Amino acid sequence: MSNYQKINQQYKGKDIISLQQFDTSSISQLFETTKHIITQLNTNTIVPYLQNKLATLLFFEPSSRTISSFSASIKRLGGVTIEYQNPLETSSAVKGETFEDSIKVFETYSDIIIIRHFENGSALRASNVADIPVVNAGDGYGEHPTQALLDMYTIHQRFNTLENLTGLIAGDLLYGRTVHSLLRGLSFYKGNTIYLLSPKRLMLPEKDVKEYTKLGLKLIQIHDEEDIPKNCQFWYWTRVQKERFAIQEEYEKIKHSFIITPNLLKNQGNKNMIILHPLPRVGEIDPRIDSDPRAWYLSKQMKNGMYIRMALLSLITGAL
Amino acid sequence: MSNYQKINQQYKGKDIISLQQFDTSSISQLFETTKHIITQLNTNTIVPYLQNKLATLLFFEPSSRTISSFSASIKRLGGVTIEYQNPLETSSAVKGETFEDSIKVFETYSDIIIIRHFENGSALRASNVADIPVVNAGDGYGEHPTQALLDMYTIHQRFNTLENLTGLIAGDLLYGRTVHSLLRGLSFYKGNTIYLLSPKRLMLPEKDVKEYTKLGLKLIQIHDEEDIPKNCQFWYWTRVQKERFAIQEEYEKIKHSFIITPNLLKNQGNKNMIILHPLPRVGEIDPRIDSDPRAWYLSKQMKNGMYIRMALLSLITGAL
Amino acid sequence: MSNYQKINQQYKGKDIISLQQFDTSSISQLFETTKHIITQLNTNTIVPYLQNKLATLLFFEPSSRTISSFSASIKRLGGVTIEYQNPLETSSAVKGETFEDSIKVFETYSDIIIIRHFENGSALRASNVADIPVVNAGDGYGEHPTQALLDMYTIHQRFNTLENLTGLIAGDLLYGRTVHSLLRGLSFYKGNTIYLLSPKRLMLPEKDVKEYTKLGLKLIQIHDEEDIPKNCQFWYWTRVQKERFAIQEEYEKIKHSFIITPNLLKNQGNKNMIILHPLPRVGEIDPRIDSDPRAWYLSKQMKNGMYIRMALLSLITGAL
Predict the structure, then answer these.
(1) A141 vs A175, A221, A241, A244, CA distance in Å?
(2) Which of A129, A180, A218, A300 has the highest count of CB atoms within 10 angstroms of its CB?
(3) Does residue B3 lie within any of the structural domains?
(4) Can you say how many angstroms the Cα of residue C217 is from the centroid of all Cα atoms in its chain?
(5) A271 and A157: one domain?
């Protein structure tokens, strides 16, 4: 994995494939740019750093949230898009074209490519073919770097640091793509303690526990909501992913193992914490929580997704 | 239904959910704005009242006509769009997300939301969740306010008034969404007489007859083309909607009950009238009528749809 | 076929339906405009000849390559688009609307219509209905004029002439739409000799051989790769189209009859030639060829598609 091109404070022209390309310095730079964008959006609905640029969005996997977040990011930067969802079904791929040829074709028209794919490593393959920047919008069980960056930005926005934090990550820790990315991101910073709450069937794999521990995270596995310590600064809750279960009944039994209710929040929470969720949620957070000022998932966190993508796109195209 | 927020000459920031929010004064204001837009389009292809604004079009029901009319309206106002058709099939909704959460997500990226949905009341639900303006582009059997407004504008364009008119509404008066909206709209004005021509199976429901009569319309039900009075100022013809019939044969038997032919126009029409149709038509109007100067359905009426939407969007975003 | 409106050096306002509308003079004009656009794109990502124009793309047949090439062309000209793929499935057409009515509706919103359809002659039908320019992006087994023009432009780019050339066209000469268009285009110029290499099952129909011969092309049919003369200036390779075979086994037997391998290129090629392919390819060109400087299919040829479309759109809208 060390073959990813490091950013090293030079975003311009880089592909964004994996969180492993980042370090605390390039993340700081990204966060500063994000703040700059947010400031400008206070007085303008469009900040034209992608003016006259054409971005192609290739989503080989259904999506509404991520594609619309990227699409809005590009348009709020004054850029234009070409967008294809499920190109496998409606395109040359049906006729038997290789993935690499498809990428070359779309590269022809574009200044940048955003790709989501159902196979691990697809974004890297695309970046190896294309001479223009490629951004990974999620590939298989693999990486989804912009999601991790927006989660980290949101936590940083609240506590002004990503060091010496205590947090909880709950739900599906086995399949959850965002969980793995966030843990890796937090491991860049020192002194972080993360409680991991999951059904036994969906625990973080042992090899990941080892890896992130080695990278400096303190990980504590718990299996009961009552074991959530009261000093957590954030709760990062995730959905149990139905699409990962072959047997429907197994999913039904497990899906609502852990739910944030007003009661849980009262008993185990504290007044300074924030609650995050990568969304969509399917019942893991009681809607009565939504109006709580600590509920950042439907407001700040979501908006930060657009902001961080705007910053990233401005940086890799060299506009900022 | 009295809970709809009245416009009261203040469009800016308002949701547009139902025709019931309007009155003769707000309609006049809208018509004036529409005329202003049309005048400007005589010399420009774009009038930039939505410059730098991002509109999200969420169409939970298949559509090509309405979505393209709204999309063109926004683009001819210099705005940009994010568009999703059938988001239920290709999105987070598949994963079990609630309608309310979906709206909150799209609100994050948008300055305005245009929604079409297959369920009555969906647009109102969306507007209750979102802090940005929501426009109803048709929900279920319910409302489709911009269609009624464009129909009214077209009649007004011809006769320079919406009072003391005599008109004919023909076809499916039971299920036709546009019929109900137009009747309501005409009931805002005094002295209107409407002939209703339909197969007995598709008559305007008795409760609606009562309601609109109470509101001031004079309604006269007829069941034979020969009973169309010769002094009608407009004929508003509608399609019998196949999708409302469980039994196909019943549809086939009834679908062409009433057809505008050159002969019918000659026998029952007059030289000052106009012919309208919400489209699509499926045989109710003989194509030989298309070149008649009284046939406004494929030309003026359709174009007015774009114009009235441009005016409405300019008003609720505060640009005009 | 003589009923197509000739361009005669007057592009403005013309429909582009068939290659038969062109002659050497109008093609020269188009090529000059294309060069002009390319020059400008060296210093700008957008050249605003379609600024404030709205183009509607109606693709009644699945496509990703052609629709994205047109969409990018329009956007790189500063124009905006409304795009519908498979409108038959998601639109008023489902409700039984005629093709002609659909075109009239979309015309309402648009400054130009780009159409692809599965039926021969559809683009011409659309152009007969619409008062705005209509561009054929491929209809049935019929015409695909912009593809032929980009192929010709690419050959011209290399040899600075379209006269007195020797070339090879290989693959499916029976069904290949692009093959027929290219042959017609080359027949406008004198002194051209074309070798035709195909399985016997997929030979150019006898009537076409006669027609193009009568128009001035020298056609030589061969059936063995070893018979390719070494002095060809271009190889135009095509895909055997799976979708044209009722019996799958027949397709499998024939699909890889002829493949460009490094060996074939070494034995039958020459150093000045170029290799073209309309794409997608499904194995007819060994990927090891891709890095050869003579391999123009994934780079220059593809880019020229966007350029020639930009030039054509600029001309018919009167911007250039």
Answers:
(1) 7, 22, 12, 10
(2) A180
(3) no
(4) 19
(5) yes
Residue B6 lies in a domain: no
- Residue-wise pLDDT tens digits, C5-16: 899 889 999 999
d(CA A121, CA A100): 13
Q: What CATH number is attached to the domain comprising A109? A: 3.40.50.1370
Q: Which of A5-19, B289-303, C230-244, C306-320 has the lowest mean pLDDT?
A: C230-244
pLDDT at B3 over 70: no
Same structural domain, B295 and B161:
yes
* Residue C45: closest C-alpha in chain A: A52
Active site residue B66: yes
Contacts of A101 in chain C (CB under 8 A): 279-281, 298
Over chain A, what HEC string results? Answer: CCCCCCCCCCCCCCCECCHHHCCHHHHHHHHHHHHHHHHHHCCCCCCCCCCCCEEEEEECCCCCHHHHHHHHHHHHCCCEEEEEECCCCCCCCCCCCCHHHHHHHHHHHCCEEEEEECCCCHHHHHHHHCCCCEEEEEECCCCCHHHHHHHHHHHHHHHCCCCCCEEEEECCCCCCHHHHHHHHHHCCCCCCEEEEECCHHHCCCHHHHHHHHHCCCEEEEECCHHHCCCCCCEEEECCCCHHHCCCHHHHHHHCCCCCECHHHHHHHCCCCCEEECCCCCCCCECHHHCCCCCECCCCHHHHHHHHHHHHHHHHHCCCC
**B248 C-beta neighbours (distance < 10 Å), count:** 9
Shared-domain flag, residues C309 and C277: no
Tell whether C232 and C270 lie within a shared domain.
Answer: yes
pLDDT tier at B254 (50, 70, 90 boundaries)?
confident
Q: In Å, how far are B169, B285, C166, C223, C308 from C281, measured between CA atoms?
A: 56, 47, 23, 20, 22
- CB atoms under 10 Å from CB of B210, counted, come to 11
Two tokens, residue C152: 């010709």
| Residues facing A114 on adjacent strands | A57, A135
B7 class by beta-carbon count within 10 Å (0-12 exposed, 13-18 middle, 19+ buried): buried
Which residue range forms the structural domain that includes residue B52? 19-143+303-316
For residue B125, the distance in angstroms to the closest alpha carbon of chain A comes to 15
Is residue C75 within 8 A of residue A101, CB to CB? The reply is: no
Note the pLDDT tens digit of each residue in C176-225. 888 988 999 999 999 999 999 999 889 999 999 999 999 999 999 999 99
For residue A320, how many other CB atoms are within 10 A of its CB?
19
Residue C300 burial by Cβ neighbours in a 10 Å radius (0-12, 13-18, 19+): middle
The separation between CA A314 and the C-alpha centre of its own chain, rounded to angstroms, equals 18
Q: Are residues A172 and A259 in the same domain?
A: yes
ipTM for the complex? 0.92
First CA to last CA across chain A, in angstroms?
Answer: 28
Q: How many domains does chain C have?
A: 2
Contact C112, C313 (CB under 8 A): yes
The H or E element containing residue B55 is strand B54-59
- Same domain for B45 and B112, yes or no, is yes
Three-state DSSP class for residue B113: strand
Residues of A near B (Cβ–Cβ under 8 Å) read: 44-46, 62-65, 68-69, 71-72, 75-76, 85-86, 239, 241-243, 279-283, 287, 298-299, 302-303, 305-306
- C224 and C251 inside one domain: yes
| Contact indicator for A60, A87 with CB cutoff of 8 Å | yes
Strand order through the sheet with B112-117: B80-85, B54-59, B112-117, B134-139
- Distances in whole angstroms, Cα of residue B30 to Cα of each of A285, B189, C241: 43, 16, 54
Q: Are residues B190 and B292 in the same domain?
A: yes
- Subunit contact A92:C283, Cβ cutoff 8 A: no
Tell whether B47 is covered by a domain.
yes
Residue A213 lies in a domain: yes
